């Protein structure tokens, strides 16, 4: 049985309330770097694979673990990136507090097909991507006894466990229940067994 360690990135500039410009290139703060340094202490003795999303904050969080496990294979998976749904033009140079009304408006619609711009996802598209990640992990590691660290994001992790527990639920139901999931803090580690 393979064990997947899903790890949220360390504190990012956005988490700290700073202005950000491009969701893919948001860096870690000094606190986030410190949190990332502690991650290997909470992982098993042997780790065969380290996977991170395409976003800078997961790459930076994975660095200490990559250093601690020099024989582990390292891969970048776009499937495990964060759910980006707000209009990036309107969000340019904004803080999390400034984006809050847009966030509340999006989630308040309960419309899984709402796509703010062609270059961002709807919730339904996001759920399909999360299901694809499930399939890829199962195909790749199912039937093995490997330990796999996946450096990812809070919204992805919430959806991942939603899909695992309710594989037949529709996107509208999952969207309405999305914030019933527990809060996932920076560098929290959750396990998923295949």
TrEMBL record:
GO terms for molecular function: phosphatase activity. InterPro entries: His_Pase_superF_clade-1, His_PPase_superfam, PG/BPGM_mutase_AS, PGM_Phosphatase. PROSITE patterns: PG_MUTASE. Pfam families: His_Phos_1 (PF00300). Keywords: Glycolysis, Isomerase. One of its GO terms (cellular component) is cytoplasm. This is Phosphoglycerate mutase (2,3-diphosphoglycerate-dependent). It comes from Veillonella seminalis ACS-216-V-Col6b.
């Amino acid at each position: 049985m393979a064990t997947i360690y899903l790890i949220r990135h360390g504190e990012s500039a956005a988490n700290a309330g700073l202005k950000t410009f491009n969701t893919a290139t948001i860096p870690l703060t000094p606190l986030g770097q410190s949190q990332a340094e502690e991650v290997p202490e909470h992982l098993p003795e042997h780790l065969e694979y380290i996977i991170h999303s395409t976003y800078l904050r997961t790459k930076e969080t994975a660095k200490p673990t990559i250093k601690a496990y020099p024989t582990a294979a390292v891969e970048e998976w776009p499937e495990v990136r964060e759910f980006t749904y707000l209009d990036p033009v309107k969000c340019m140079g904004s803080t999390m507090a400034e984006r809050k009304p847009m966030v509340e408006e999006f989630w308040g619609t309960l419309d899984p097909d709402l796509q703010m711009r062609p270059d961002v996802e709807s919730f339904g598209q996001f759920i399909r991507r999360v299901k694809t990640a499930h399939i890829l992990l199962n195909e790749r590691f199912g039937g093995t006894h490997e330990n796999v660290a996946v450096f990812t994001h809070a919204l992805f992790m919430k959806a991942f466990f939603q899909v695992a527990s309710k594989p037949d639920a529709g996107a509208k139901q999952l969207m309405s229940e999305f914030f019933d999931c527990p809060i996932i803090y920076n560098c929290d580690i959750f396990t998923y067994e295949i």
